[in-house]
């Protein structure tokens, strides 16, 4: 009995110090922190005569009793990490997706628009604009007279002046002039005519004696219904009767009258 006491005292002392070094006793090993494990089974056992010391070297209690296989390994902290892109605005981030912490373009000196969140959770103002400062920005269609290089000509018109809406979101082309378009019913540009618009011309103005002038689909004159009357006498020609003179409007005849043997 007396020979066992020194060994028991030695075992108790090793468990209490918890200095992190492993010590083997009769088939059991005291692991780091004072935990006991069986060399045969690998199962964790409680300490004998007191609790195991912690990993930082603090001694355990002196209360006797069998342990329950306690582990002394310190675990890593799993909370508090900031991860950009998880959709949750956290400390250290300016924004997350569509969450800007209550900030708007107005907080950055702009009058309107939408903030943008970058891939590294920084706020971008590329979608903001200050309408009315005369400078077209990315989110504006125009601002004052700044149309980003656009003109009535680039928009498909013959000329004129573009206008910008009050909210800088719409380019107004009402001040532009339509380019000549054959078929719109209005004679313009190099067109001879357009529909019923003959520009004041007639068969007589085209060198015919009578008939009806019309317009082709390609906006040129159609004289197929105009006639020339070679048998009638024109203005100043010799005549014996009024019937010999051409009708008014043909060959310079005004009255279709033979006076002093001349048609007038």
Describe the structure.
The chain has 264 residues and is mainly beta. Among the domains are: 98-179, no CATH class; 181-228, no CATH class; 231-264, no CATH class. Helix content is 5%, strand content 15%. The chain is built from 1 helix and 18 strands. The protein has one helix spanning 4-17, and strands at residues 23-25, 28-30, 36-38, 44-45, 112-113, 116-117, 123-124, 128-129, 159-160, 163-164, 171-172, 176-177, 210-211, 214-215, 221-222, 226-227, 258-259, 262-263. The strands form 8 sheets. It has a 4-stranded antiparallel sheet, covered by helices on one side. A two-stranded antiparallel sheet has the order 5-8. A two-stranded antiparallel sheet has the order 6-7. β3 (36-38) and β4 form a beta hairpin.
Could you provide a short overview of the structure?
The protein has 264 residues and is mainly beta. The protein has one helix spanning 4-17, and strands spanning 23-25, 28-30, 36-38, 44-45, 112-113, 116-117, 123-124, 128-129, 159-160, 163-164, 171-172, 176-177, 210-211, 214-215, 221-222, 226-227, 258-259, 262-263.
Fraction in beta strands: 5-15%
Mean pLDDT: 74
Helical fraction equals under 10%
Alpha-carbon distance between the termini?
166 Å
Main sheet: strands, sense, barrel: 4 strands, antiparallel
Count of DSSP H/I helices: 1
Taken in chain order, the helices and strands follow as HEEEEEEEEEEEEEEEEEE
By helix and strand content, what is the structural category?
A: mainly beta
The backbone outline, from C-alpha atoms, is rod-shaped
Query: What is the spatial order of strands in the main beta sheet?
Result: 1-2-3-4
């Amino acid at each position: 009995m007396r020979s066992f006491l020194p060994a028991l005292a030695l075992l108790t002392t090793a468990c209490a110090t918890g200095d992190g070094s492993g010590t083997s006793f009769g088939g059991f090993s005291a692991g780091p922190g004072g935990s006991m494990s069986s060399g045969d089974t690998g199962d964790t056992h409680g300490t004998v005569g007191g609790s195991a010391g912690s990993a930082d070297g603090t001694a355990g209690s002196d209360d006797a009793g069998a342990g329950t296989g306690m582990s002394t390994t310190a675990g890593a902290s799993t909370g508090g990490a900031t991860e950009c892109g998880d959709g949750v605005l956290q400390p250290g981030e300016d924004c997350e997706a569509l969450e800007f912490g209550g900030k708007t373009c107005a907080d950055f000196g702009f009058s309107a628009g939408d903030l943008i969140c970058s891939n590294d959770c920084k706020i971008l103002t590329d979608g903001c604009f200050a309408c009315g400062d005369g400078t077209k920005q990315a989110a504006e269609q125009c601002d004052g007279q700044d149309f980003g290089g656009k003109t009535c000509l680039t928009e498909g018109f013959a000329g004129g002046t573009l206008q910008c809406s009050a909210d800088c979101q719409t380019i107004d082309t009402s001040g532009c002039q339509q380019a000549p378009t054959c078929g719109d019913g209005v004679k313009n540009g190099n067109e001879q005519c357009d529909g019923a618009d003959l520009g004041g011309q007639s068969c007589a103005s085209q060198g015919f004696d009578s008939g009806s002038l019309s317009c082709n689909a390609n906006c040129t004159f159609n004289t197929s219904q105009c006639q020339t009357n070679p048998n009638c006498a024109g203005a100043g020609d010799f005549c014996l009767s009024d019937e010999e003179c051409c009708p008014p409007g043909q060959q310079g005849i005004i009255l279709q009258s033979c006076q002093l043997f001349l048609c007038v």
